[in-house]
């Protein structure tokens, strides 16, 4: 079992204290460089009748490990999707590395280069090998064929799947499939990994190994890690927590 850092959860504002760097400007509790900010972020559906997220304000420091916690329907996945640029707020804004996501001229390219996604379902293409699945995001980065193959091999080694590159998804276990999905998320060297219930389809032992892999990436490569979960044991492993209830960030 890996050692996990424990610190007090954030306040209801969603601002997450940092253990590093010099004190920040007045009015902010984040002292590390901020990678992600949410400013009064709301998301409404059904012509405003359903508030999936309401006035969420939060900051996530670069290199932090954050759990977004709450019951089903609390707005966790909605928030994660907006952080990753997969969905847009009805009002408010998400700011990534000082730039509002809405200001990006090519949001697809931003996601491909800066953000890696890991989901409960692995979303591997069944007719492609593990190595070929990992290479898919690399086409957006204009790598040549030889470099794509070499990067995929290195990533398979990194996630503990040396020798499995030529296997189809149907020949992989659930844990192996999720490791391939993590390798795919790392394909273009992102600063941020967003994981939505990454252990939800796995048994406890396999799920623990997947969390340890993600935590190692956070700790050893300083990749900012945001994990959505309803599992308190999973949330407790993170440095900080954003707790949601009925679409609002609340005190733990």
TrEMBL record:
Enzyme class: hydrolase
Low complexity bias locations: 17-31
Keywords for this protein: ATP-binding, Hydrolase, Lipoprotein, Nucleotide-binding, Transport
The EC number(s) this enzyme carries: 3.6.3.-
Family per similarity comment: Belongs to the ABC transporter superfamily. Macrolide exporter (TC 3.A.1.122) family.
PANTHER family per the UniProt record, alphabetical: ABC TRANSPORTER ABCH.1, IMPORT ATP-BINDING PROTEIN
Protein name as it appears in the record: Lipoprotein-releasing system ATP-binding protein LolD
Gene field: lolD_4
């Amino acid at each position: 079992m890996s050692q996990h850092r424990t610190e007090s959860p954030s306040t209801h504002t969603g601002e997450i204290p940092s253990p590093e760097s010099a004190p920040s400007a007045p009015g902010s509790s984040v002292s590390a460089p901020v990678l992600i900010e949410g400013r009064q972020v709301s998301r409404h559906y059904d012509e405003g009748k359903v508030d999936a997220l309401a006035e969420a304000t939060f900051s996530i420091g670069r290199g932090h490990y954050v759990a977004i916690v709450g019951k089903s329907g609390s707005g966790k996945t909605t928030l994660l999707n907006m952080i990753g640029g997969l969905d847009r707020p009805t009002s408010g804004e998400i700011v990534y590395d000082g730039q509002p996501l809405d200001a990006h001229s090519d949001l697809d390219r931003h996601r491909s280069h800066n953000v890696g996604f890991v989901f409960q379902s692995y979303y591997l293409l069944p007719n492609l090998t593990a190595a070929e699945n990992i290479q898919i995001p690399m086409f957006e980065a204009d790598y040549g064929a030889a470099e794509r193959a070499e990067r995929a091999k290195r990533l398979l080694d990194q996630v503990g799947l040396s020798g499995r590159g030529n296997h189809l998804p149907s020949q992989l276990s659930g844990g192996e499939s999720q490791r391939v999905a993590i390798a795919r998320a790392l394909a273009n060297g992102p600063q941020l990994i967003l994981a939505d219930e990454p252990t939800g389809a796995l048994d406890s032992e396999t799920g623990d190994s997947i969390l340890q892999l993600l935590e190692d990436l956070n700790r050893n490569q300083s990749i900012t890690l945001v994990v959505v979960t309803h599992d308190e044991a999973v949330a407790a492993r993170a440095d900080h927590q954003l707790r949601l209830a009925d679409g609002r960030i609340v005190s733990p």
